[in-house]
Amino acid sequence: MSDFIALWPESASAYSGRIDLLMWVFTALVVALSAPVFILIAYYAWKYRAGRKADRSDRVNRNTLIEISWALIPFILIVALFVWSTRMFFTVHQPPPDAMEINVVAKQWMWKFEHAGGQREIDELHVPVGEPVRLSMASQDVIHSLYIPALRLKQDVVPGRYTSLWFEADKPGIYALACAEFCGADHSEMTGRFIVMEKPAFAAWLEQSGTDVSLAAEGEKLFRSNGCSGCHGPAATVKAPDLEGLYGSPVPLADGSMVTADDQYIRDSILLPQSEIAAGYPPIMPTFKNVLSEDEVMKLVAYIKSLATTEDTP
Amino acid sequence: MTENPPSYLDAGHTIRSWLLTTDHKRIAVLYLISVTFFFLVGGAAAGLVRADLLTPEGDLLTNEGYNRAFTLHGVIMVWFFLIPSIPNVFGNFLIPLMIGARDLAFPRLNLLSWYIYMLGGLFTLIVLLVGGVDTGWTFYTPLSSMFSNGHVVLVAAAVFIVGFSSILTGLNFIVTIHKLRAPGMGWGRMPLFVWSHYATSIILVLATPVLSITLVLIAAERLFGLGIFDPSLGGDPLLFQHLFWFYSHPAVYIMVLPALGVISELVAAAARKPVFGYSFVAGSSIAIAIIGFFVWGHHMFVSGQSMYASAVFSFLSLAVAVPSGIKVYNWTATLYKGNILLDPPFLFAMSFIGLFVVGGLTGLALAMLSIDVHVHDTYFVVAHFHYIMVGGTISAYFGALHFWWPKMFGRMYPLTWGRITAATIFFGFNLTFFPQFILGFLGMPRRYHVYAPEFQTLHVLSSAGSTLLGFAYLLPFVYLGYSLVASKRASANPWGATGLEWTVPSPPPKHNFVEIPTVTGRPYDYPVDKEDSR
Lengths: 314, 534
Ligand code: HEM
Ligand SMILES: [Cu+2]
Fold this sequence. Notes:
The complex is a heterodimer of chains A (314) and B (534). Chain A has 314 residues and is an alpha+beta fold. Among the domains of chain A are: 110 residues, Immunoglobulin-like (Sandwich), CATH 2.60.40.420; 93 residues, Cytochrome c-like domain (Cytochrome Bc1 Complex, Chain D, domain 2). Chain A has 7 helices and 12 strands. The radius of gyration of chain A is 27 Å and the shape is elongated. The C terminus of chain B is likely disordered. Chain B has a single domain, classed as Cytochrome C Oxidase, Chain A. Helix content of chain B is 67%, strand content 0%. Chain B contains 15 helices and no strands. By secondary structure, chain B is mainly alpha-helical. Protoporphyrin IX containing FE binds next to helix 2, helix 3, helix 13 and helix 15 of chain B.
């Protein structure tokens, strides 16, 4: 493709190739449905223009059969497209369980990425090729939207909730990454680079930008320094739920309902502790809303997550 | 033969006789002037935006300046041009004439709507003077409620006020259409223009209050920190989006349904034939209005709403294409064996159909979940809605202007100039907005003031097109203005069209009909001439 004028975006995953195929088929369909209109309008306008001799006898003003057919045929084609595209949409919302986790925090106006090993980067995201990656995203202020055109993916990052995105990049390279939801003055500068690396190169990169402290370990430190362990720790005198093994398990609430202890539940328990109260415990936990930043909360979540799997990791 | 009474234009020449008029035709002219004014203001903002995008660094404006320019462009174009344009100018002027009534049901309410519109407009101009607002016309929270340093409350007030004008106009149209049809004009004999305004009015009355409430909530949240949309107080930013789009999606049908009504009239008159499948075309307006209420979630596919909700919204959004498609196919069939006048109104109608088809079909792409994930909030969307709203609605608006101008002002204009304008708008429009589909698919997000250099060529093409387009939009000022003082007088029915509005003199007398007509046939009752030519 020429440098002067690009016509098709680069593609960095198998999924984006499938989107492109759908787009091609759609385009073909669009041409098939609309070309007759364009051609016939032009042809009739010329053939039946006033003053020109033409056969204008037996004019019809209605024909129910024809009309039903041109409502029904497009409808059936549309249903086919709907099924195709919706199935693809569902796949990108169901990450494989073994996906590698990366935390993302968006704020006016930068992207912060944190790998499980504690490596952080700003406005750059390094990922290995051929491995499913799941981004768990939070916003510190307004709504942002993480957009990686080469993957044909984007997802809003909404304050107050975690959203996620997963992909498996399969072509090493450097691609664009942008914010797609208008987020204030420097919205258009909230861009970065999405860097897909071969596995050994990625391992080397992790090594070189590595820290000694994993996210979970940092979370553990926060757990102590913010006094969480005072209530939730083994030696605590206050009656608070034990967090070991909590992640991923069902939690009965005081109002009788059940929730699953996922990232969102843990986050809300820290920042909005009065909104979902675990059954059997007094609602005494204070909010950490103005104490912890989104990335600190994510570290705490990582720590609590690690408690769930302590048995099977040495 | 009775002497013709003086025309509505001659019934009083003082400023007072205009500003206190309750004649629907004069109020239409007041709207014509004010809507045109806002079109120019909004267009100037678009020009700034396009000039700034000539270079990837956006050298012309600052970041803030750019954000304020596109926000004002959006706010003004949506609420002060697109929504009021066709209903308030042409609906006002034509509905009573077309159904054989002497005026709308509530003439004084009609005048009040205009004053409310102007009051809202005044607020917007004040916002413009004190520095503008930077949230985009969509006012997403928490940006608008907590982080913006623009004049959000003032703009919300402006839009809130103008909403009342919409509601009153809608009510007035509904009652008028129900109560004031001339004897013999059953629902099956109503012109399609009136049908589409009926559908539009239903949306106006049902949807606008939701917008008003939403704007009050935004203002309250900003001023008093209520926390309805603020997650740190337990609120939900997505709630805002649901409320906003529950109004704003139907609002796009408010913008386009009246245009569809105009095109049906223009096509029938140009072909000198009844519209093919009258009842399907009338019914599809109502179908669009109803389904249009259940598709708002298609603006939120990547917002984090449940994927099952998204699937339902996707399906319903795709379904709206069917009634829209019916109209396009029916118009095409109307031309078959017609006797077609290639005059400016018909050229605008053809241009409408072309642009509306492109806009509508790319809307299907956006309604498909997995494609929308890629192109949402990119230039693809900007191109799509400009095709519908600017290509579609404005072509229809100009078509209506060129078709009913002789009726409104009693003067013909030079047809050649009208043809040149229609062709230039069509060409300029495509040059402006087609490259934006490619830009968006390549991954250029919208509302970007600086962008990657590889997008520049397409942006330059688009800016060149917009210059041409802007120029073409200004052309009618010259020849239509000129026609008012120097052209030949128009006859009662210069196009040989059917419809009650063409049975009264041009311009019509103050009370439209000396005697209320009785309708005896179906609309578009053109003589079937078996002759080869007219
Ligand atoms: C020469 C004509 C026009 C040009 C060149 C133009 C250009 C633009 C551009 C570049 C944007 C995108 C700003 C962005 O998101 O970065 C925009 C947005 C918009 N335009 Fe236009 N426009 C034109 C005419 C119109 C007209 C006539 C209308 C309505 C009647 C209109 C309605 C809108 C709306 C509603 C938006 C969305 C604003 C937003 O993003 O908040 N435009 N226009
Ligand atoms: Cu952002």
